[in-house]
Design a protein that fits this description.
With 161 residues, the chain is α+β, with helices and mostly antiparallel strands. It has four helices and four strands. The chain has a four-stranded mixed β-sheet with strand order 2-3-1-4, covered by helices on one side. Helix 2 runs antiparallel to helix 3. 25% of the residues are buried.
């Protein structure tokens, strides 16, 4: 009976984990969007969260897919200057870094129950944001994926008006 309860609890955790993945990816993409709006001052963008496939939900400029692995912001990209391009590329990883810092501060200063669901969710968010930060900031470029770190290096090497 204990094994059945254990399995049932983990089945119930699947939507919780999906929601936590969504939160991390959403904030990462919002970091890019905020920098885009600040530095480019244009309103031509849309965000997709999740891997391509069957759409789960589409609201305005936001599209959500069930496979919560990645996200992408599409915008009218122009290389005005290095700072603008670099800040848009760095916006997502910067948000992940800020979330990591806030989670660490909260866990060590305010989270007293180290066995509860809140602690588990915060640890999950910490590790997921850490992995998002590292995979985004490491320069990677292949036919399926271009990281934010690669875009930053490309912007540093690029020609601008």
């Amino acid at each position: 009976m204990d094994a059945l309860i254990f399995i049932f609890k983990w089945i119930l955790m699947i939507p919780v984990m999906w929601g936590l993945l969504f939160i991390s990816i959403f904030f990462h993409e919002m970091g890019h969007l905020i920098m885009y709006l600040i530095f480019y001052r244009e309103n031509n963008w849309r965000i997709e969260i999740g891997s391509k496939g069957k759409k789960l939900l589409e609201i305005g400029r936001f599209t959500i897919y069930p496979k919560m692995l990645t996200g992408h912001i599409y915008y009218n990209f122009k290389k005005y200057n290095k700072l603008s391009s670099i800040m848009v590329s760095a916006g997502g990883p910067l948000v992940n870094l800020v979330l990591i810092i806030f989670i660490i501060i909260y866990i060590f200063n305010f989270c007293t129950d180290k066995t509860g669901l809140l602690y588990w969710c915060l640890c999950f968010l910490f590790y997921h944001n850490l992995s998002l930060f590292l995979t985004a900031i490491i320069p990677i470029n292949n036919k399926h994926y271009t990281s934010d770190g690669w875009r930053i290096l490309d912007d540093l090497r690029g020609d601008y008006e």
